[in-house]
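Q: How do we represent a protein-ligand complex in a form that can be generated token by token?
A: Start from the inputs.
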Amino acid sequence: MHEHNRKKLFELFQPSADALIYLKGGTVLHRYNTDFEYSFRQESNFMYLTGVKEPDFQLIMDIKDQTWHLVLPRRDSKFAVWMGYVHPPEYYKETFGPDSVLFEDQLELVFSRRSPETVYCLGDETADVLRGFNLTANTDTLPEALAYCRSIKSEAELEHLRIASKIAGEAHIIAMKAAGAAGFEYEVKAAYEYHTKRNGLLHEPYSGIFASGANSAILHYVENNRAIPKNSHFLIDAGTEVEGYAADITRTFPVSGRFENPLSDLYDIVLKAIRETISGARPGVKMEDLQLHACRVILDGLKGLGLVHGRIEDMMEINLFALFFPHGLGHFLGLDTHDVGGYLKGVEPIDRPGLRFLRARRTLEKGMVITIEPGLYMIPALLEPAFKDKTNKPFLNESKLRKLLGFGGIRIEDNLVITETGYENMTPVPKSRERIEEVMAG
Ligand code: GLY
Ligand code: MN
Ligand code: MN
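Then emit the structure tokens for the protein with manganese (II) ion bound:
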């Protein structure tokens, strides 16, 4: 897989160009208290090109002769005492198959012998290293090139993404079932993580959201520590990571296991929005058009419940949808949860509420992996000012909406691969009210 990835990157450059690519891998992060280090997770571009899961490595790719070279940290016997290993260079040569391995203190020698016209790197830190060796660093090209490569997934990458979605999906079902007997949000999180971790998947691709009641309208709620109100509903937005590849799934369900109003009616609106946008996903379709469609479905649903009134087109015109659905419809998914490649060079976010948070303003192509995640929230911080705003006010049924201010929110999120003619939905978690009730009833 990583060999294929390197080849894909090499192919973007003139084969005989007198140039190198130079990347630094990740380093260990520590917390602000003693004796705690975060479990190491490789930097995504480095992972994409090498598969090396250890900290402090570097990479040189030589465009002129299409070779690649792994730069190892110089580890001493103290490292073996505290960390348990010091592998010899041959280990890395055999495991990862580079054309050569060298130590970081030999970089100077390499750069003095092989002094190319250009060295492509990702950012200021590596550029500074290169300037220290009197080399010309180019930081413009490589980020774009890697984003281009990573935005279309190979079959091997898709396999990792499918497994991540499968195991995260199982964990969602387990956590859903655990929610009924749980007193606190973190109990549901523990049930979720018990499943992912016992499958050997130790990394979270993002901070999971385990939100009950009104907390479900907090878009980045990560405290996950409050008591679950009786008869409330619950939102889980959580994934897992397989060989660095992420799943990112959201489900919303009643803690009691039985949908009742107002949850049922509002849930059906989001369900319609995700079903219709998923069925519209195929090559040639623009993500922003899918988002606009979801916005219309949400406004139409709210109108059907008498929560807003007026012509849908007039509401679209003033972006009324963003009061209820203030985030983007989705993003690319891969080695990063919000994966690279969502915006081509020169493309800016749409200057419109809600839509400006769309993280992939792309026309869909086969091999792209995206999330679709419409939501509907009752957010006091948005609705209170809107009740007083002369543009929004005429469309809002204030007295009905006020009754829902403590309701929270609903989001449903699936992970799709774009195929030749449509999509493959990798997310194996039920979405319909009936199926969720069945699952929760055991
Ligand atoms: N959980 C992050 C997201 O859905 O984008
Ligand atoms: Mn998510
Ligand atoms: Mn997402």
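The first strand starts at residue 19 and ends at 24. The chain has two domains: 2-150, 155-440.
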